[in-house]
Structure formats: C-alpha cells, structure tokens
Amino acid sequence: MTENNEKKEAIFRLENILIKNMSLEMPENVVTPTFNATPTIKLELRNISRQLSRDNYYEVVLETTTKVLSGENVQLLVEISQGGIFYIENVEAKQRERLLNVHAPEMLYPYISQLLSDLMMRAGAPRIFLPPFNFRALHQKKLKAMEEQLSQEKGEKGTVS
Predict the structure, then answer these.
(1) Any residues with CB less than 8 A from the CB of 121 and at least 6 apart, and which?
(2) Mean pLDDT of the chain
C-alpha cells in the first residue's frame, strides 16, 4: 500500500472582472466644470475581499473615491468599485490572505485606473491615471499593525493591578 504524498498544485486565477458601482457628480456646474489652472486631486483607495458561497471562489473589490477640488469647492466627485471573482485552491490560509490582499488587487488596479481615466475624460475633467501603488507594502503595514495590537492586548491582559 503506497501513500500519495504529492502536494497538490496551488491554483489562483481571475475568473471574472466586473464594475460593482460607478458614480460621477459635478456639484458646482452640471454643464462644464470650472477648474482653476491647477486643480487639487484627492484619491482614496480601499480593498475588500470576501469568500463567496461556492467553494474556492472569492470576490475582491477595489474602491476608489476621487475628488477634484478648485480651491475649497468640489468640482467633481467620482466613486468606482471594481470587482473581480477569483478562484483559489490548494493554498494555505496565510498565502490565501496574501493573494486576496496583494496579488488580486494588483490585477484589478489597471482596470480601475483606466475606468477612472475614461470617466473623468467623458465628464470634461482633467484625465487622471492612478499612480503606481504598492499593495504589498500596504499589506505588510496592516499585518504589522495587527501584530502590535495583539501584543498590546496580551500585555494588558498579563498585567495585574
């Protein structure tokens, strides 16, 4: 009787790309935004992941909020949620977390950047491409913050007054 000690091959693939939400608002001027010579642009980026009801399927969503300001006035507000469905099999929990928080967002990032650029151009606004973003560094920062919080909680539980 022989045992099969072969490790199954890890699988990680993008199954589908979808737009979950997209909105554009021009609060000041519906027809033509009145940008000054150098508008200020504020970008926010979030990453959300969750397991779907089917085994080994996960949804990862990148959300961006972009504000174009002329002085204090919001000239343009764009919110986009770009989603992806990923299939992950034969991967340990720690590696799966890294795939969902680093590699999946890296795959979706060019899509959300292009969508933002196209939408802003169609609104008559300055065309914006999202700058390069290091999801790996962000993930490491989150892990470090979680470790520090856990060590603080352990320290507080261990002290006796």
Answers:
(1) 127
(2) 85
